[in-house]
Design a protein that fits this description.
The chain is α+β, with helices and mostly antiparallel strands and 166 residues long. The protein has five helices and seven strands; from the N terminus they run E-H-E-E-E-H-E-E-E-H-H-H.
């Protein structure tokens, strides 16, 4: 599977090695609804690694195709943590295809704090640093907003999204 220039990519924080293993082995990633981005109906998710990853920290190193999403509670996702204070809170569970390691990591020039970042497949393919993922030009911004509007979770779906697993 290959990233196309027009694909919508969500760059998200991968906070721990455990979360990487869940994405790799179980094929899902969780996002609390309370802090979720505008839409989770994206083509790809790319993972920015935190300081928990030692020498690999502060770079986008992995990505996976998003095959759909569903709304679940944290308890449904992580049954072993049923006593967690947020066990009853809703989460988006993104179903992922095979996890890929990027051929070339996309590092932050300096430490960056963010939660989510939207970009395009074209930007992801060309990026040499995290700042290269930003959508800056008016034309790129208009394209990104159009793609997000078409996929928003308010019930308005484009034909491509309507065929996704949800």
């Amino acid at each position: 599977m290959e990233v196309r220039p027009e694909d919508l990519v969500l760059v998200a924080i991968l906070p721990s090695r455990r979360d990487l293993e869940i994405a790799r082995v179980l094929g899902w990633y969780r996002i609390p609804v309370q802090s979720a981005p505008k839409t989770v109906d994206v083509d790809w998710i790319a993972f920015y690694l935190t300081s928990a990853f030692g020498d690999e920290k502060w770079a986008v190193r992995y990505m996976a195709p998003v095959q759909g999403h569903e709304l679940v509670t944290r308890r449904e996702l992580l049954g072993a943590e049923s006593g967690h204070p947020r066990a009853k809170e809703p989460y988006f569970k993104l179903q992922l295809g095979r996890l890929f390691k990027l051929p070339r990591p996309i590092p932050a020039e300096k430490w960056r704090r963010f939660t989510f970042l939207y970009t395009t497949g074209e930007k992801l393919q060309r990026a040499r640093s995290l700042s290269d993922l930003r959508v800056d030009s008016p034309g790129e911004r208009a394209l990104l907003w159009r793609m997000m509007r078409e996929r928003s979770t308010d019930g308005q779906r484009d034909e491509k999204s309507a065929n996704r697993i949800e």
